[in-house]
Design goal:
The chain is α/β, with parallel strands linked by helices. It contains twelve helices and ten strands.
């Protein structure tokens, strides 16, 4: 691809909404650089039983040893079952622990939106098989096995009951005034957890989140993304007219965030790459995905402001696309606000 200016990229991003309807939120797009951090030996595995079976989280202890300040870091659409993407692709755990914050990174939850689903993910009532479900070719995985296929995802229950109680009872972590943040898929999840569990979460952060699922183009993008991420059926999470969308879609539950006076920090990039020069295929994908996230984030901001919401910071950096480098930079900017509103 020839070299282009950022102005040309901005014009191209107007096409991103249509492009991203065919792309997976939170994907590791083709040509993306290799992970910079991967396994961090300063963390430790923390296993908790649940209705989904034993679930691992990675725990990083605050530098000063306190147990009062806790934040949950949620993963993206293609969450893996060995490590959380924040550990694989960033070094945010070090920044957070240096700020005397304990970090909880749940592992798993691919394509789950960290929600309590209605049923296991199936298509046409065909039971899922047992042949993996981890391949990137999601279309061939629609009836394969994998997380959430032979059992029902109950991630909201896990995060707000099983894990919360285990952290309190086994590590003496504070179970109230916690923070939670997520990227792409889990940006909406962070807001949802804060809205419906205000006793647990006093702060929620969203980076490039999927914040208006009522829009047809965004709902369709989610449907395709969930299939592509491993063959997951959005209708198993919540049917097209299911009232449960009022609990999953941030635009629909914005009033609960206002009523709880939860501190919000919401960010989305401009769709401009951070550097001038040639735009490769990976960046084109990331631009398109960020365009859809930006559309939904702006819509959520308008809704929140229209109902008189006040306790929120909306941030739109001049550069930034749908990638880990953007989200790690935004975490650094969010950190003082997070630190001031937990514990």
């Amino acid at each position: 691809m020839r070299g282009v200016t950022r102005r040309e990229v901005l014009r191209k991003s107007a096409l991103g909404v249509g492009l991203a309807a065919l792309l997976p939120f939170g994907a590791t797009v083709a040509g993306a650089p290799a992970a910079r951090a991967a396994f961090d030996p300063s963390g430790f595995d923390f296993w908790v039983e649940s209705s989904m079976g034993p679930i691992k989280s990675r725990i990083f202890r605050a530098a000063d040893g306190n147990t009062n300040r806790v934040v949950y870091a949620l993963d993206g659409m293609r969450a893996r079952d060995d490590l959380n993407g924040w550990e694989i692709d960033t070094n945010v755990s070090r920044a957070l622990t240096a700020a005397n914050i304990n970090v909880v990174m749940p592992v798993g939850g691919r394509a789950s939106f960290y929600a309590d689903w209605n049923e296991p993910s199936t298509f046409a009532d065909t039971p899922a098989g047992t042949d993996g479900g981890t391949a990137d070719n999601g279309w061939s995985q629609m009836n394969a096995g994998g997380p959430g296929k032979t059992y029902t995802y109950k991630w909201e229950t896990f995060l707000t009951q099983d894990l919360r109680n285990a952290l309190r009872d086994r590590l003496s972590f504070n179970a109230t005034r916690n923070g939670v943040f997520g990227l792409s898929m889990s940006g909406s999840s962070a807001l949802q957890l804060a809205a419906f569990h205000a006793d647990q979460f006093s702060f929620a952060g969203s980076f490039s989140g999927v914040l208006d699922m009522s829009m047809a183009v965004i709902r369709q993008a989610i449907r395709v993304a969930m299939i592509d991420a491993g063959g997951y059926n959005i209708d198993s999470m919540a049917g097209p007219k299911d009232k449960k969308w009022g609990r999953i879609d941030p635009v629909q539950f914005a009033s609960k965030l206002k009523s709880a006076n939860t501190r919000l920090w919401v960010s989305c990039g401009s769709t401009l790459p951070a550097e001038e020069g040639a735009v490769n295929d990976s960046q084109v994908n990331a631009i398109g995905l960020e365009a859809v996230a930006l559309l939904g984030t702006r819509s959520f901001e308008a809704k929140f402001n229209s109902i008189g919401g006040r306790n929120a910071s909306f941030n739109y950096p001049a550069v930034g696309v749908h990638d880990w480098a953007n989200w790690e930079a935004r975490l650094t900017e969010m950190l003082p606000d997070l630190s001031a509103n937990i514990g």
